[in-house]
Amino acid sequence: MFPNLCIYLIDQDSERQSYLKHIIGFVEGELCVVADPTEIELPSLDKGSACVAVFLGLDLEPDQRLLIARTLQDQFPGLPAFQLYDEERGLPEKLEGCDNVLGGFKMPCLYDDLMALTHKAQVYQELKTSDTQTSRPVELFRSLSGSSRATRRVNKMIEQVADSEATVLILGESGTGKEVVARKLHFHSVRRGKPFVPVNCGAIPGDLLESELFGHEKGAFTGAISARQGRFEMAEGGTLFLDEIGDMSMPMQVKLLRVLQERTFERVGSNRTIPCNVRIIAATHRNLEDAIKHGDFREDLFYRLNVFPIEMPPLRDRVEDIPVLVNDLIHRIENEKRGSVRLTPAAIAALSHYRWPGNVRELANLIERLAILHPYGVVDVADLPEKFRPTGELPEAMQLPQVTLEGEEPGTVINAPRLPNDGLDLKAHLNSLEQSLIQQALDESDGIVAHAAKRLHMRRTTLVEKLRKYGLQRHTESPGI
Known about the structure:
Blueprint: E1 6-10, H1 14-28, E2 31-35, E3 51-56, H2 62-75, E4 81-86, E5 101-107, H3 111-129, H4 149-161, E6 168-171, H5 178-187, E7 196-200, H6 206-214, H7 231-234, E8 239-243, H8 250-262, E9 264-266, E10 273-275, E11 279-284, H9 288-293, H10 299-305, E12 308-311, H11 322-335, E13 342-343, H12 345-351, H13 359-373, E14 378-379, E15 402-406, E16 413-417, H14 426-444, H15 449-455, H16 460-470
Parallel strand pairs: 1-2, 1-3, 3-4, 4-5, 6-11, 6-12, 7-8, 8-11, 13-14
Antiparallel strand pairs: 9-10, 15-16
């Protein structure tokens, strides 16, 4: 059995063993255990141990590396491995069929590389060893995540209208999650067991939309070689979601209005009236009242749809939800077996200061991109695409206005930060301040952890834990090299 945490080194070079033992113990606070590469069975590696990763030595032959990696993969599927390499020999080729080998580790090593590797290994272990039966079901990804006031208000409105038969009109910018709201409305309604049928009215040409919605009979038009159900029939007893309703042509608006009024329709090419029992939920990113003024949308249809409007706030107006959304998006990637990634608190704080013109859809695309660029890695501010990084010396959340107060001595005054009118997230603000001061101490101490700890009046081990917590990285060689 090993102590709390360890890195398992398979290398015969005594000088390299001593070097890695020293820096891993000093920088990471973990034990480096050395193994003989000839012991392929790895008898000392107990399944109950807290081994973080395995390092495959520089001098191992390719066949030997492959055999060890496959043995690890078979016996300890949640344990990641890394191939050591140096400038002279370069990174070895990827070991075929060994998904547990997550990459290379360059010697001599850098502090930030060692921290990043350990975090990457822990994320990989966390994902591989978690109980797949506890993965959240797909339905939970339909929820509107977040705890901001705007999100709570939308969720409250959904609860109020979900069980009714009222027509709902969802308004908001593109990418805010209008379909998520529609699906949640259906999921919490009495129609839950019936179909949810979405139609993007803006993506279907006007001359085909009538057939798409109402269906057609055989021979109704050129190419209609057989009869076909429309979306209204498919959604019978359930919910029909008309997305981008503002892009629907005027002639189709007239036909849709008739269906909403009479609750019946006819297939194209037929005179048989078909009754329909569907709940209509519509959505648009357009301002329909302006469209009415310009003659692009029927006023009577607008009032038919606008029974219960729900306005989706843009992501920039609910930045408090970003940490929850990031967590949910990462869980979705993991649930779909597409890898994983983690973001440091500093990276999430940086994302909170971006304007998000593409809203939640843009955030989802970013998380997917980071999972591809940094598989099982920990993403810090420097790893974000440039446009997502904050500008200026301090994050906006730390630039508080000042207020003048009376000092302790009579006739004296002091300047103190003033609480903004709309309040602030105190925990996030203090975390940002702590990160900034730690980074300053590291910079002024040339990256030496012990010296920075003295400047901050704390123990070195405490500072190391805070560096792990915040994912702070330094592009300097590790102490003891």
